[in-house]
Amino acid sequence: MPSGQIRSAISDRVSGVDGEDRGTTERVLTLLGLLQQRQVWTGPELADRLGVTPRTVRRDVERLRALGYPVHASQGVGGGYQLGAGQDLPPLLLDDEEAIATAVSLLVGAGGAVASAGDAALRALAKLDRVLPSRLRHEVRTLSDAVESFDGGRVPVDPEVLMTLARACRDQVEAGFGYPSGGEVRERRVEPYRVVASDRRWYLLAYDLDRDGWRNFRVDRMTGVIARTWRFSPREAPDAAAFVQENVALRVYPQQARFLVHAAADTVRAQVPASAAVVRARGKGRCEVRSGAASLDYVLMHVLLLGHEFEVLDPPELRARCGELADRLRAAGSV
């Protein structure tokens, strides 16, 4: 993260322990930056770069260790100070160029170019956004606009819209936007809870204040997205990913079906997009598949083409339909 927040933490710890002045804080920050730039520094090299004695370097290294940075020291040829990997990830000290590069990479990932990492990229970007200096925002926006992807996976959305929604979720403030409904765009006023990434689209899980219930909204259909200043107290919410997946794969369709498939859940999940069906394990080597469509024949065809033995659980009329289609296929094969 940019150095402001780290400077505050180091300053509080340094002054609280030994009453050192601002110069000590700045020096410790500089030391941290040096250790993050190169794998190993000798004591004399650090002393020369910082303009202090090797003894002061040792004291500053102890200050970093007290803050949770695992600074290792080794003796002999090739030895020196090295910033190691700790149990928890400590704050990173980024200069302006590094902060810009990181933010642009996260914007691209959140926008869909890195679909598998999109939700993690958005969470990281929301954290970076909190401490990113305002002078860098224009450069981040300009650079991210210049990056495109030919990956045809997820439907692209404006990263700024994702950021606005992520900030609203983080800060627990109401959000407003236009959303198509019944052939017209209507204004929606919601308490945003989570931004959810599927294999194809971005969704917002939110409590719709005008309809008094939980809803999910496609981010690419939103217009005029704003985060309001009115804060709300979080409600007891459903599991965001499960709620959105069931809505997308099931509830939006007039016809729904359940199947018991004789294959492991992980095997079937690898064959079926998450937006097309909900797959749940049902014992060893079996799983339940729930899906929806405008026609039950369409769902049946896709389960058949998975290539596994299966049984129809619901609805009952689909079992009879299987017999009709089997007779038709046998007749076609005998011609």
Automatic annotation (TrEMBL):
<dbReference type="InterPro" id="IPR051534">
    <property type="entry name" value="CBASS_pafABC_assoc_protein"/>
</dbReference>
<dbReference type="InterPro" id="IPR036388">
    <property type="entry name" value="WH-like_DNA-bd_sf"/>
</dbReference>
<feature type="domain" description="HTH deoR-type">
    <location>
        <begin position="24"/>
        <end position="79"/>
    </location>
</feature>
<dbReference type="Pfam" id="PF25583">
    <property type="entry name" value="WCX"/>
</dbReference>
<dbReference type="GO" id="GO:0003677">
    <property type="term" value="F:DNA binding"/>
</dbReference>
<dbReference type="InterPro" id="IPR018356">
    <property type="entry name" value="Tscrpt_reg_HTH_DeoR_CS"/>
</dbReference>
<dbReference type="InterPro" id="IPR026881">
    <property type="entry name" value="WYL_dom"/>
</dbReference>
<feature type="region of interest" description="Disordered">
    <location>
        <begin position="1"/>
        <end position="21"/>
    </location>
</feature>
<dbReference type="InterPro" id="IPR001034">
    <property type="entry name" value="DeoR_HTH"/>
</dbReference>
<keyword id="KW-0805">Transcription regulation</keyword>
<protein>
    <submittedName>
        <fullName>Transcriptional regulator</fullName>
    </submittedName>
</protein>
<dbReference type="GO" id="GO:0003700">
    <property type="term" value="F:DNA-binding transcription factor activity"/>
</dbReference>
<dbReference type="InterPro" id="IPR057727">
    <property type="entry name" value="WCX_dom"/>
</dbReference>
<dbReference type="InterPro" id="IPR028349">
    <property type="entry name" value="PafC-like"/>
</dbReference>
<dbReference type="Pfam" id="PF13280">
    <property type="entry name" value="WYL"/>
</dbReference>
<dbReference type="InterPro" id="IPR013196">
    <property type="entry name" value="HTH_11"/>
</dbReference>
<keyword id="KW-0804">Transcription</keyword>
<dbReference type="Pfam" id="PF08279">
    <property type="entry name" value="HTH_11"/>
</dbReference>
<dbReference type="InterPro" id="IPR036390">
    <property type="entry name" value="WH_DNA-bd_sf"/>
</dbReference>
<keyword id="KW-0238">DNA-binding</keyword>
